[in-house]
Every structure is written in C-alpha cells, then in structure tokens.
Write a structure and sequence with these properties.
mainly alpha, two-stranded parallel ribbon, elongated, 7 helices, disordered C terminus, 219 residues, 2 strands, disordered N terminus
C-alpha cells in the first residue's frame, strides 16, 4: 500500500514538472514546428561571386607584379655579388661593393616583408567585406521568407580516397538536406544580371522556390 502511494506521488511530481517545463520548450508566440531551416554553401558563393572573382584577379595581378619587381632586384644583387669577385678583399672597390650589396639586400628584405604584409591584409579585408555582404543578403532573404536558421554546408560529394577529404566530410554539420538549399538564391542577389558566374551550373543546381518551406514566389 505504501509503495503504491509513493509511486502515485512520484508520478504526480513528474507530471507537474513536465507541465511546467512545456512553456520553456516552445516560446510564447511561436511553436517549435514554425521554425524553418535552410542551408548555404559559402565556398560555392565565393567561387561564383563575379565581383569577388574580379577583385581576386586584381589582387593576383598585384602579387605577380610585386614578385616580378623583387625578382629583378634580386638578379641585380646577384650580378653585383659576381662582380665583387673581380676584386680582392681589402681593396676600396671590394669594400664599396660589399657595403652596397649588404645595404640593398637589407632594404629589399624589409620592402618584401612590408609588401607581403600589405597584400595579406588586403586579401583578408577583401574576404571579410564580401562575407559581410553575403551575411547581410542571407539575413534579408531569411527574414523575408520566414527562415529562422541558416546552416553552412558543402554541396560537393566526396568522391576521393584522400583521407583528409573523407575526414572533412565526416565533420560536416549537415549530413542531409532536401530542397532547402538557398545558395543559388543568395548568389543571384549578389551577382547582377548578365555578370556570368557559371550560370549553367547554377541553373542546374537551383531548386524551385516552391521547394523551400514557407517561401513566397518573389525574392
């Protein structure tokens, strides 16, 4: 009899806790079932962002120009190092060339380091600016279409036997998605009409707007 009363009291306590926990699981004004999730491939966005691609090409051009300039200076210094062999240590010309070589090598090293730092900072700023732009478009698109969460994922299938690629695939946060990919929608907002960006691949991968839950027809 006492055991039955204890069980009844325990059951009543559990029911009381469950009833009081229910509101915390579903905030007022929105049920858990109203949440809508989408996914986006950020790498694909950067790869096909036409303006970002143009900025990258300009950056690569400046990198190549800097490398060519420094290569020419190194060639000149090497020529001076060969020229100094014509003189004996201690001779005035030998000492003059030796000091000139040391000065130019030091100056070149400093300028190379500064140029490298500047190019790296420019590259980081370039990526950050475009990422912020992507984030703004995702936020706008999600709010307009009732999407409450956007997760990052990778569209590419793993077809390699490379252990590193397999390991990366195992660490993907999104294992499966079905018609909730908004990558193309965001890319179309970032790329103006007629700007390129591999449209054939985008059209082939694009889901219809009706396939994303709760998404109206207009973007």
């Amino acid at each position: 009899m006492k055991t039955s009363l204890r069980l009844a009291a325990l059951a009543a306590s559990i029911s009381f806790l469950i009833c009081n926990m229910a509101p915390a699981q579903a905030p007022a004004g929105r049920s858990a079932s109203s949440d809508r999730i989408a996914v986006i491939d950020i790498n694909y966005i950067f790869k096909n962002h036409t303006r970002f691609g143009a900025m990258v090409e300009d950056w690569k051009g400046d990198v190549q120009k800097a490398e060519d300039g420094f290569r020419g200076e190194r060639t000149e210094i090497q020529a001076m190092a060969e020229d100094i062999k014509r003189f004996k240590p201690g001779q005035p010309d030998y000492k003059r060339l030796e000091e000139d070589i040391a000065r130019r090598q030091s100056d070149l090293q400093v300028r190379m380091q500064l140029k490298k730092k500047g190019l790296m900072e420019r590259e980081a700023k370039m990526y950050m600016n475009v990422y912020n732009e992507v984030q703004e478009q995702v936020e706008y698109f999600a709010q307009r279409h009732g999407i409450t969460m956007v997760l990052r994922f990778n569209r590419n299938d793993v077809t390699s036997d490379d252990p590193r690629q397999i390991q990366q695939a195992l660490l993907r946060p999104v294992v499966f998605q079905d018609n909730i990919d908004i990558t193309v929608d965001i890319l179309q907002r970032l790329n103006p009409p007629g700007s390129g960006g591999d449209p054939q691949e985008r059209n082939a991968a694009a889901p219809s707007r009706s396939q994303v839950p709760g998404r109206p027809g207009a973007r």
